[in-house]
Design a protein that fits this description.
Structural class: alpha+beta
Strand order of the largest sheet: 1-4-5-8
Distance between the termini: 44 Å
Oligomer: single chain
CATH superfamily of the largest domain: Butyryl-CoA Dehydrogenase, subunit A, domain 3
Mean pLDDT: 95
Helix content: 40-55%
Radius of gyration: 21 Å
Shape: globular
Bound molecules: flavin-adenine dinucleotide
Largest sheet: 4 strands, mixed
Order of helices and strands: HHHHHHHEEEEEEEEHHEEHHHH
Number of strands: 10
Number of domains: 3
């Protein structure tokens, strides 16, 4: 197994203590046993074993950071444990990580805004791996303009009647609980509510979507045709969903950045191994200065992204909200991943173009996973725009 981003547990890092190192070691074993051997099969099949949720629940992966009273582990857990989680899951593949952890973009909203009854209902079965949760914000008419969502929920006595559709929803086919952003009021951010829709509610249907990467991830379009849900499914007050949606972004962006940087490091490691082994014109490929410089450039970008990510993680952990920097970090990480995937494939030559089951490594898959990282969770353009506004440009 290739250690992510140059990390040797217990060494060379200011921000990690024994508990992070222990979590890394345990999770690494779990990922090596339960995910790595099946990645090619699952990517080929376009889905991973549902059993993995149960195994991940029992192992404690799904409950990491959630309060003990809901079955999670929160004592002594901080955001660096989440960073470790993203880095270690990257040793498997992006598709599995995205769907397996779709709970982490939906449950935090319930944690932030939900009633105790709602937390008791939705959180324990999901972190145990018995149920699956997802978040539906993006719509066919656009995902970047979150404040412009159109899916409507109209109050009718003790129910909301929902009409509209959602697009690109991770865990969209398999989920049991869908946290859906709906318009319940006027235009803009102050008219949005979040409502849980359960699988099987009449009028609620899903269609799977085929993709360029994250092949084993479950991605779907959702349709709501007069879907009637009880008012008890409203998370937080009516028209106060925006705060919940936004509150999740810091940790989501840090987690995405950690994953992207781990994929970038895999690209470096695979390129180094190949360049040392491959002979061209009578000598090892790595003996050429142009190849050494490619590797040095990749390392420079990965190391600076890692330093930026760890500094911002530390700031968030200490109560700061560095919104502009988090947006810039996400761009830094996706551009680094794009660069490293390109250069790694270039160094591997034709072999880099082959899928892992007929080629030497993972870089072909990582190359196909770059774009979803540069688009999902806030695209590069939208992140730069947000940072510009925050910085007063
Ligand atoms: C595999 C996958 C999984 C996903 N999972 C989820 C999920 O679980 N839940 C969920 O809610 N969403 C999910 N998404 C949606 C994702 O968050 C959106 O794709 C993303 O927010 C961009 O929205 P869009 O695709 O509609 O692009 P658009 O908003 O239509 O934008 C298209 C392009 O135009 C650019 N652009 C838009 N506006 C501007 C502007 N003003 N200035 C300059 N450029 C601009 C964007 O950066 C982008 O490059 C997922 C997407 C994918 C691909």
């Amino acid at each position: 197994m290739i250690p992510p981003a140059g990390i040797e547990p217990g060494k060379n890092n200011l921000f990690y203590n024994e508990s992070h190192d222990a979590w890394r070691q345990e999770l690494r074993k779990f990922v090596s046993k339960e995910i790595v051997p099946f990645v090619e099969e699952w990517e080929e099949a376009g889905e991973f074993s549902r059993e993995l949720y149960k195994k991940a629940g029992e192992f404690g992966l799904l409950g990491m950071g959630y309060p003990e009273k809901y079955g999670g582990t929160s004592e002594g857990i901080d955001i660096f444990h989440g960073i470790v989680t993203s880095e270690e899951l990257a040793q498997g593949c992006g598709g599995v990580a995205a769907s397996l952890l779709s709970l982490n973009i939906s449950l935090p909203l319930i944690m932030a805004l939900g009633t105790e009854e709602q937390k008791q209902k939705y959180i324990p079965p999901v972190i145990a791996g018995d149920k699956i949760a997802c978040l539906g914000v993006t719509e066919p008419s656009g995902g970047s303009d979150v404040a412009g969502i159109k899916t409507k929920a109209v109050r009718d006595g003790n129910h909301f009647v929902i009409n509209g559709s959602k697009m690109f929803i991770t865990s969209g086919m398999r989920a049991d609980y869908y946290v859906i952003a709906c318009r319940t009021g006027g235009p803009g951010t102050s008219g949005i509510s979040t409502i849980v829709v359960e699988k099987g509610t009449p009028g609620f249907t899903q269609t799977p979507l085929k993709k360029m990467g994250w092949l084993s991830s479950d991605t779907a379009a959702l349709y709501f045709d007069d879907v009637c849900v009880p008012v008890e499914n409203l998370i937080g007050g009516e028209n106060s969903g925006w705060m919940g949606i936004m509150s999740n972004f810091s940790q989501e962006r840090l987690g995405l950045a950690a994953g992207m940087n781990a994929y970038s490091q895999i690209c470096i490691d695979e390129a180094v191994t190949w360049a040392k082994d491959r002979k061209t014109f009578g000598k090892s490929l790595i003996e050429n200065q142009v190849i050494k410089h490619k590797l040095a450039e990749m390392s420079r970008k990965v190391n600076s992204t890692k330093a930026y990510m760890e500094l911002l993680t530390w700031k968030v952990m200490n109560g700061e909200q560095p919104i502009a920097d988090l947006a810039l970090l996400k761009v830094q990480a996706s551009k680094t991943m794009e660069y490293c995937a390109r250069e790694a494939i270039q160094i591997l030559g034709g072999a880099g173009y082959l899928k892992a089951n007929s080629g030497p490594g993972k870089v072909e898959r990582i190359y196909r996973e770059v774009r979803v990282n540069a688009i999902g969770g806030g695209s590069e353009e939208i992140m730069l725009d947000l940072a510009s506004r925050q910085l007063g440009f």
